[in-house]
């Protein structure tokens, strides 16, 4: 490992990232940091694929972080993830353990690998009120004048979006933001990751997606979503909230609202949607490579133990 102080295991859904990550943690005295945008939520168990039993290997519980850390009635975002990742990373390394980040949420992974400067946006008192007195034409002129790189005019025609864009742009170039950015860069831990990518032949990925979805349906995916919604008064799981969680939760919510003719129709369309999502994930990671992130891709073979062996070889021979 030498210069590397953590491992990232990334790839599309249903290819065995967790299985590889857990085996690596067992071998190299590590702990898992999950990079999954839905597994952070309590109650999203079957649909998000937490599979917590997978974190027990050879009779030993592999510690994991950033799973079940947020209630559904709060929106967990990229800023939260980056902050929580750095806390977990520092905690793990302080105990002499190796952080192993496992997940397929591309934006989460990218935020760490490309060191996003996530600064909480703060409005100056009275600034919004002053902008609200402007006409749409005046706001367009302000936005065009103040935003140096106005790549598109999608905000035009929507007064609230223009005001928000102006306020955010002003904050981003402010002295307060500059100071906050410098403090952030000075305070966050130095992360030097070895990035390992894993995927399989696309046909096999589709087959694994179909089987996994069938298993989750049998495990009670529909009942999970129904129970979440039935307790919406306590957990905030209104239909709109569940639908916003994407894929399994959106499709099953629509099914429970009678938007599909049958469970079979819903399941078939969901299976196709997950397959399309897996392709987008692969595209994201390939784009990360083009932006300078070195990804060591494992051979696309089964069983998972063969890819684990290949990952060990990469780690042991890494600079």
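^ Assign residues to that structure.
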């Amino acid at each position: 490992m030498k210069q590397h102080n953590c491992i990232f295991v990334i790839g599309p859904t249903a290819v065995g990232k967790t299985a590889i990550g857990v085996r690596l943690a067992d071998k190299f005295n590590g702990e898992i940091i999950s990079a999954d945008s839905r597994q952070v939520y309590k109650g999203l168990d079957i649909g998000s694929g937490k599979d917590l039993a997978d974190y027990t290997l050879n009779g030993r519980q592999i510690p994991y972080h950033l799973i079940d850390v947020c209630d559904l009635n709060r929106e967990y975002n990229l800023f939260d993830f980056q902050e929580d990742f750095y806390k977990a990373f520092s905690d793990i390394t302080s105990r002499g353990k190796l952080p192993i980040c496992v997940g397929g949420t591309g934006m989460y992974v990218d935020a760490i690998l490309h060191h996003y400067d996530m600064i909480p946006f703060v409005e100056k008192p009275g600034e919004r009120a002053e902008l609200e007195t402007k006409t749409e034409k005046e706001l367009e002129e302000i936005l065009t004048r103040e935003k140096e790189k106005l790549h598109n005019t999608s905000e035009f025609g929507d007064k609230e979006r223009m005001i928000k864009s102006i306020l955010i742009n002003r904050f981003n170039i402010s002295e307060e933001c500059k100071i906050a950015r410098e403090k952030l860069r000075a305070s966050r831990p130095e992360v030097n990751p070895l990035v390992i990518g894993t995927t399989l032949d696309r046909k096999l990925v589709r087959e694994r997606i179909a089987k996994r979805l069938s298993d989750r349906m049998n495990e009670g995916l529909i009942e999970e979503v129904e129970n979440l919604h039935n307790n919406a008064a306590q957990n905030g799981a209104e239909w709109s909230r569940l639908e916003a969680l994407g894929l399994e939760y959106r499709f099953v919510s629509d099914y429970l609202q009678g938007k599909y003719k049958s469970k079979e129709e819903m399941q078939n369309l969901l299976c196709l949607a997950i397959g399309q999502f897996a392709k987008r994930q692969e595209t994201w990671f390939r784009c990360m490579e083009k932006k300078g992130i070195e990804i060591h891709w494992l051979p696309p073979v089964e069983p998972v133990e063969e890819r684990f062996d290949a990952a060990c070889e990469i780690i042991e021979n890494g600079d």
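The beta strands are 6-10, 30-34, 56-57, 60-61, 64-65, 98-103, 193-197, 295-297.
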